[in-house]
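**User:**
My hope is that you can spare some time for a protein that puzzles me. This is the protein in question:
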Amino acid sequence: MVAFVFITCIAQFLSLSALNQTVAPVMVLAKHFHIEDYGSLSWFSASFSMSVGTFILPAGRLGDMYGHKRIYLVGWMWFAAWSFISGFCYTSGIIFFSICRALQGIGPALLIPNAVALIGRTLPLGQQRMIGFACFGACGPLGAAVGAVFAALLADTAWWPWSFWILAIVCLIVMALAFVILPDDIPSVSEDAGSQRPYFDYWGTITGVTGLILINFALNQAPLVTWANPYIGTLLGVGFLFMVAFILVELYGTDYPLIPIRGLQMDAIFALTCIILGWGSHGIWAYYLYLFLEHLRGHSALLASAETSPVALTGVLFAFSTVWLISRYGVSHIIFISMTLFMVGALLLATMPLHQTYWAQTFVSVIIMPGAMNLSYPAANILLSSALPKEKQGIAASLVSTMVNYSIACGLGIAGTIDRYTIEAEARRRGWTPEDGNPLPLSDNSARAQEIRLVGLKNALWFAVALGVAGMAVAAMFIVTERRQKKTSQK
């Protein structure tokens, strides 16, 4: 069991490590690619999260159809190939690097839902399965911390592409181990399918993936070109139309939906909504924390990674406490606690003075934020895994992981817009009129520029606080609804 849990949980570990490949050395990348705005920098991380969140939808279904182990192995091969290619982007520009990061993210999209599905299908319902999900959740902050330190160490002391090439080698090693360790699984076939070969939801995949990509692209491109550019609003509108089409297809156009909308109970909807709000807040918190430490406080990438490394320890502690907490208090209360931690973690950064000791608000925020991550993610997975049958464990895993990763990408896009427009307004208020259209080039480190930049960063973090508050409100409704259902069933 130990080998099985290790080989499935390492997917979460390396996926979060890969996300932080461009978060920790953010200012090193800005210098290498001659980037002068936060919006371009955020694309390196947002494109990765966008692909993970978008392509998880069909990846989970493919695992249900053709075997989770098979798709899991394909995911490692893809992850290795595009990590290797991404390392060579030092010779290219930011557009090609962002595209390679997006393609790299398809690897974790194939890995994560099928790893979770393997846990859900292999481990029996009860404590063993909850421990498996807790281990999987613990690998999130642990992988993020290790990935940040590793990427920062190579960026500061050697060369940043090495983090991608080494990751590629590790992926190939893990693929070989997974081939040996994982048991062979039989593809799931719905009992009412009427045939030996299950049906893939092509129209749902086309409409869903297209809609998600267009919406996310519009949200993350807007901070660069502003919302005044007509194609931003057009792409956003077309993206929402595709999502409406996706919902209609899932409801009426297929017998094998990517998302069983009709089968989702109210508690699952509450949990997924909280995941969207909470993890959207978390993505903003993580990205702007590194910008705050490296660009405003002037810390090196390695020092900033060391300052955020406590997430590894507290993340593991919170993840394993989830098993006991859920059995004692229930999923709805645990999700409410996690939403509160999302809010408090962002609030500490939003109110943090620029020149303050690390051991005050920064340290406290870093300590508690893993609690938000590792209480919400396992709790939602446990709820969805228990709610859906064995042959739909890939779908259950896809739902949670899609919401986690896609909300990170969308949250960064919206926060980037808030940051951009705040900086413009603050610069105009102070009588600053830039000639090139960039309200505040990153190379300008004057005291006046830092003051203006701090205002924009804090407003982006206040948006993260608002998302956390909204998550708390939804979680509170979840608790009230659950109590009413229990009273009704007892009558």
In short: Residues 201-255 form one domain. The two ends are 43 Å apart (CA to CA). Residues 189-196 have pLDDT under 50 and may be disordered. The chain has two domains: 2-183+256-490, 201-255.
